[in-house]
Structure formats: C-alpha cells, structure tokens
Design a protein that fits this description.
It is a single chain. The protein is of the alpha/beta class and 133 residues long. The chain has helices at residues 48-54, 67-80, 97-108, 117-126; strands at 59-65, 84-93, 113-115. The protein is globular, with a radius of gyration of 16 Å.
Length: 133
C-alpha cells in the first residue's frame, strides 16, 4: 500500500509487501483472476468492476482483513457501484475487536448484508443467491 501520509509512519515500513506471497493454502488456481490492489478498496484503480460486469455478477461477498479498512472500504465501493454486498462477520478481522464490531454496525445500516460464514454458505446452497436469503 503506498504511504500517502508519510508524517504518520516511516515510509520504509511498507516495503515488506514487495516480497510477500499468498499463504500456500490460499494460492490461486490457474483459472483464478488475481487483482493487485494499490489502495484499501478493491475497486480503486483495479479492473475488478469491469471483470465482475463482464461475468454478469451482481453480488460481492467480502472476507479478509482489516474489517475497518480494506474490507469496509471495498464494501462501500461495491455498494456505490450497485452491487449487492454481503459482508462475512466471522471471516473478516481487525486488530481491535471494538473497531470490528463498530464497522459491522455501520455496514448493517446501509452498505451490506452482514452474515456469518455459515449463513452465507446456507444461502448459497439453498438458492444460489445470498441477497434473497
């Protein structure tokens, strides 16, 4: 992530990601699309929106870290682009439990349907659509 606020943190701290890798159990398959994001939200300066629209997808399911930064920003960006946003409450995390719960409350109020991973799986198995579960 580029450090736009050098006065907050030493810019050298962010260089760890240059040699980073995906955890071996999460490595993408040959047919998977890999998107490298330059900012907190997955839609900012990436081809994600174009890819999803070309695939005729209208729903995004969010999991990952950090709940109140990358995940929350992506949820908002997706919502503003017209996607149904499903946010996994137990498959997102942050370094501060209070921030996690606060972000989930905000997202529930207008940006996303917040569900547990079990609720998401059940909805996908039952209807193939999470937003109507």
């Amino acid at each position: 992530m580029p450090n736009r606020y050098a006065h907050i943190r030493d810019p050298g701290e962010a260089t760890w990601f240059v040699n980073s890798r995906v955890w071996h159990e999460l490595e993408p398959a040959a047919e998977d699309v890999v998107i490298r994001k330059p900012s907190y939200g997955a839609f900012c300066d990436t081809p994600l929106d174009t890819i999803l629209r070309n695939l005729k997808r209208d729903t995004i399911i969010i999991c990952g870290t950090l709940t109140n930064y990358c995940c929350g920003t992506t949820a908002r960006q997706g919502y503003e682009r017209g996607y149904f946003v499903v946010f996994g409450s137990d498959v997102t995390a942050t370094d501060e439990p209070g921030q996690h719960e606060a972000e989930l409350r905000v997202l529930r109020r207008g940006f996303a349907r917040v569900l547990t991973s079990r609720e998401i799986i059940t909805a996908l198995q039952g209807t193939g659509e999470v937003q109507s579960a």
